[in-house]
Design a protein that fits this description.
Length: 530
């Protein structure tokens, strides 16, 4: 069977959930098919690694060290695959490839143009991935909305693809918005009609239209959209607003989406959603609830911590425990003894981040967690700040800090990686991707993972300074996981407390609905027991 392609585009406005829609389609078809997701982003950055989380949301890190769009988190969680950085194609990467080919003389002196040279690069990249991975199905998501100048070349390449692969091997899905204006109480199809017209002007005629709406689309609105947009009424699907994104595959199945795709692409891969339904049921009807303080500096944009939120959802599905997040902005938070930010809190998370802003507030929160024996989970920077707090207040190392925050600190308990000292460029220079850690026997971390060696994904430049390992360990902090050479600290814990653990890694990135991240699972369980 030749490789099949599903192209997912979006219109009307951004943020409708193309990534979740693409991931949900893949989940519904994954029982018998090998599926590869590809994301095409119009921005000129090579990757989102240098973007501010307020600008772009979370940077998702892959096993191979690639920094990619947060939609890859949805792909991995819904499809159960480990994606590769090559599967994220930005316009920055495309132009870089074109420039390199031109400099090498690959174009034989021709004038290099958007069409065919740039569009050929895009198609060649996608076909090269197909050749390498040998999938049954490739799902290509085009970032942005139809009409954006940034994605015009991607759309043109997708239009051309139907001639390259054959019309029977490609299917176009378009996600739009169906509003219900206040006071009118009627679903409106005009934005969808205009969006599809824009798509048709680019030579792409959608086979399936998904209308994002706060209600199920009525039979009348489906018929109206079908009539104006030249699709069958059954191919107009509701993209319902839901409280939990994991409900989307259930909605799509209810709307008959898998059968439409089976018929149009001549494939058969019936969805098996029995376990998925049970997980959703556990999340919808929890038996317990805990409140967790999420202490960071990007709390105004929850997308900055998308994978952490999903990791808690996975725990909820298995523990039947609702995790209520209390967002705590740590900038300017310096005196917790006179603050009520931890009132009613069952556990504390200090997530990753960069820069000095908000760090002293986080250190204060970690101190309170340690002194009050509140379950604590530190991630990446959270581990570093836990070491700094312990060094200051337990080891007696006054002024201990990270050289990132204070280059002149008298006790640099956290210091930059030696191999990074001469690096000038920010992008792609960190310790990125999956690295192994050896876990110490009879520790909390070893018990939670149930293994002597584990691998988690990283994204950082600074480490616990080996010159201070012994001093910190002598005062009671356990380095429960180290790199294979014993040089780098991967996990810490305070065994005398009910739950005080941190990791230099980002275990939230590999958490799945079927198997929650062990550290998160243990943390939520400790919050429950408290």
């Amino acid at each position: 069977m030749p490789t099949k392609y599903i192209i997912v585009t979006g219109g009307v406005l951004s943020g409708l959930g193309k990534g979740i829609a693409a991931a949900s389609i893949g989940h519904l078809l994954s029982s018998r098919l090998k599926i590869i997701p590809i994301k095409c982003d119009g921005y000129l950055n090579v990757d989102p690694g240098t973007m501010n989380p307020f600008e772009h949301g979370e940077v998702f890190v892959l096993e191979d060290g690639g920094e990619v769009d947060m939609d890859f988190g949805h792909y991995e969680r819904f499809l159960g695959v480990n994606c590769k950085s090559k599967w994220n194609l930005t316009m920055g990467k495309v132009f870089d490839m074109v420039r390199q080919k031109e400099r090498r003389g690959d174009y034989l002196g021709k004038t290099v143009q958007y069409i065919p040279h740039v569009t050929d690069i895009i198609k060649h990249h996608i076909f090269e991935i197909s050749q390498e991975e040998q999938p049954d199905l490739v799902i290509v998501e085009i970032g942005g909305t139809v009409g954006d100048i940034e994605n015009e070349l991607f759309l043109e390449a997708m239009r051309q693809m139907k001639e390259d692969v054959g019309r029977e091997n490609i299917l176009y899905v378009h996600l739009t918005y169906v509003p219900i204006p206040y006071g009118v109480n009627e679903q409106k199809s005009k934005p969808t009609q205009q969006s599809v017209n824009l798509l048709k002007q680019r030579g792409i005629f959608p086979d399936i239209i998904i209308g994002r709406c706060s209600e199920f689309l009525t039979r009348e609105i489906k018929s109206k959209i079908a009539s104006f947009c030249d699709v069958h009424p059954n191919a107009v699907i509701t993209g319902l607003d839901v409280e939990d994104i994991y409900e989307i595959p259930l909605i799509f199945e209810q709307e008959g989406l898998p059968e439409i795709i089976h018929k149009k692409l001549h494939i058969y891969s019936p969805p098996d959603l029995r376990k998925w339904r049970q997980y959703i049921e556990n999340i919808r009807n929890p038996e317990y609830a805990v409140t967790v303080a999420m202490c960071g500096k990007y709390t105004k944009l929850e997308d900055s911590y998308a994978s952490i939120i999903e990791a808690f959802n996975h725990c909820s599905a298995h523990l039947r425990c609702k995790v209520n997040l209390k967002w705590v902005e740590t900038t300017g938070l310096e005196n917790l003894d006179e603050s009520d930010v931890l009132e009613g809190v069952d556990g504390i998370v200090v997530p990753g981040g960069f820069g000095v802003r908000g760090t002293e507030g986080k250190i204060e929160i970690i101190r309170m967690a340690r002194e009050r024996d509140i379950p604590f989970l530190g991630l990446c920077l959270g581990l570093q700040l836990a070491v700094i707090e312990f060094a200051r207040h337990v080891c007696g190392l006054e002024g201990a800090n990270s050289t990132e925050m204070d280059p002149d600190t008298p006790h640099p308990v956290i210091d930059i990686l030696p191999e990074q000292r001469t690096v000038k460029d920010k992008g792609g220079t960190m310790r990125l991707g999956a690295y192994p850690a050896v876990l110490k026997e009879e520790t909390l971390v070893r018990e939670l993972y149930g293994a002597a060696e584990v691998s988690e994904r990283h994204r950082h430049r600074y480490e616990v300074n080996p010159d201070y390992h012994q001093r910190i360990a002598d005062n009671g902090m356990t380095f429960s996981g180290l790199s294979r050479d014993g040089r780098l600290v991967e996990f810490i814990e305070l065994p005398q407390l009910r739950f005080f653990a941190a990791t230099q890694a980002h275990p939230e990135l590999t958490s799945r609905m079927e198997r929650p991240a062990p550290l998160f699972y243990g943390f939520v369980r400790a919050c429950l027991n408290r």
